[in-house]
Amino acid sequence: MMELKRIAGIGMLMGMFWLGTGTSGRSQNVETSTNTVEEELLQVEAFADSTVPEMVIRERLAKLQNEIPLRYHKVTHQFVEHFIYRKPDFVKRMLEQMHLFFPLYEQTLEKYGMPRELKFLSLIESGLNPRIISYAGAGGLWQFMPATGREYGMHQDDYIDERFDPVKSTDAACRYLKRLYNAFGDWEMALAAYNVGPGNVKRAMRRSGSSSFWGIYNFLPKQTRHYVPQFVAMTYLMHYHADHGLFPDVPEFPTVSDTIQVSGYFNLMTFAKLGGMTMDELYKLNPMLINTELPSKTKNCVLRVPNHCYHYLTENRQMIWDSASKSPFSAVGALASNGSVLESGEETEGEADETDTVLKTKKVYHTVRKGETLGKIASRYRVSASELKKWNKLRSNSIPRGKRLVVLKEFKALPQVAAAPSKAKAQAKIKIRYHRVQHGDTLSTIAERYGIDVARLKKINRLRSNMVRKGQKLLVG
Question: Does an H or E element contain 457, and which?
Fold first, then answer.
């Protein structure tokens, strides 16, 4: 049985993180703190004086209970009051955003014959943010780790992460939860296993000699002990929030959209600009996009676009697609294929010819790995730590593993070559830049240095692998 590798109970951590924030920024702007989470848990446990009568919660939970047990417990009671009095903004935000995803959740749960109340689990997992990444690297509405995501068919690369796709991740979550229920035969145990992994639940069963959640409760990690009570408390509040004075301010509903299909290289920023939409709109409709472009290997990628832009896009499709599909190296490729004269630039050790180039800025992303510091990352991309902090709105130099950082890279590119009306202009010479591979160079570091991606660098140099040898001459522009 496969395990989700969730450090310290990711579902619990992400739920508590969202309770502790006031904004709903995308994943690259998220900061998590395990110390803060631990303090929140201790506060909940110390929440002794109840203001909501126990009998009221007991009776209401009994009315709500369907397939999943909604048992009353003092910890559940404490979480109900914690959400009502200490985190009302979180509850209000969930009430405002639930219409964005609940219809999808209900449809998928019905497809697999599963309890509808499981839709509330995503509130605890991600705070209904499809682009969030935990400090341990779990991502999306249902917080899948990368390996688990791939096991359940969700593609991940430098351009697309399908863990952030609401449709695919919800389908995967339903399949995984059903698998856990079939393994344990109990929904409370299945939820605990979703949080901490089935292996850890089975270990707690062996140590406790029990096969029920409350029987193994004291043998589970603290965050997992609180996971099921949190789910029960949130289920309660989604039904009885009005009785406690909690109402949504401005409910959100899905944006009316149409779909387009894209193949080959595609610059998303150019597309959004020419198509009359913002990048935020494009990302919101397509949360699986994690870059500003799609690679040349893209095949039949379906993108959602705002309905109000669709008519304009269809009328101007040729112009917009031609502009968005223009690769930075398309000018070189076109000239070479047409037989025009190419003149190689002067080679220097580790440097490229800078003649006839323009300076451009490109946004790239870096996912923080274990042991990396802000200084090391800044050095790698040849920027300052203060710039990294500014670009990512960081208040300190501490960065959690799994966090995605924005890096603005300046690079020199060939100017756009206008169509030449005369034969003389068609034969105009352009400068080609090369890089001579030095000791310690890798394809990745060379690509980063010149502001291009590895896939494109391999393509223009006809490389079959990522191996390069010292002294090798590579086309870089």
Answer: helix 454-460
Q: Yes or no: say if 371 and 105 are a contact pair by the CB < 8 Å rule.
A: no
Cα–Cα distance for residue pair 28/343, rounded to 1 Å: 42
CA distance 149 to 146: 5
Distance CA 377, CA 418 (A): 38
DSSP 393: T
Span of 99-113, 122-136, 442-456 with lowest mean pLDDT: 442-456
Name, of 274-288, 322-336, 393-407, the range with top average pLDDT. Answer: 274-288
Could you tell me how far CA 61 lies from the centroid of its own chain? 34
Name the residue with tokens 């060379």. Answer: 446
The first and second tokens of residue 295, run together, are: 């690679």
Q: Which helix (H) or strand (E) holds 106?
A: helix 88-111
Q: Which helix (H) or strand (E) holds 138?
A: none
What are the angstrom distances between the C-alpha of 235 and each of 9, 51, 80, 93, 118?
20, 19, 10, 15, 9
The two most distant CA atoms of the chain are separated, in Å, by 90
Contact status, residue 474 vs residue 461, Cβ threshold 8 Å: yes
Q: How far apart are CA 168 and CA 429, in angstroms?
A: 49
Of 227, 201, 196, give the one whose Cα is nearest residue 7: 196
Asked if 230 contacts 238 with a C-beta cutoff of 8 angstroms, the reply is: no
CB 82 within 8 A of CB 44: yes
Among residues 271, 258, 219, 238, which one has the least CA distance to residue 124? Answer: 238
C-beta separation of 309 from 276 below 8 A: yes
pTM exceeding 0.70: no
Beta-ladder partners of 133? 139
Q: Report H helices in 140-240.
A: 146-151, 166-184, 187-196, 198-208, 213-216, 222-240
Q: Which pLDDT tens digit goes with each residue over 176-230?
A: 999 999 999 999 999 999 999 999 999 999 999 999 999 999 999 988 999 999 9
Dist. CA 340–CA 336, nearest whole Å: 6
Within a 10 A sphere around the Cβ of 60, how many other Cβ atoms?
17
> Under a CB-based contact definition with an 8 Å cutoff, are residues 116 and 110 in contact?
yes
Quote the CA–CA distance of 19 and 162 in Å, as a whole number.
Answer: 25
* Burial call 293-307: b when 16+ CB within 10 Å, e when fewer: bbbbeeeebebbbbe
Nearest partner of 268 among 253, 278, 256, judged by Cα: 278
C-alpha 75: how far from its chain's center?
Answer: 31
The one-letter code for the residue type at 77 is H
DSSP 435: E
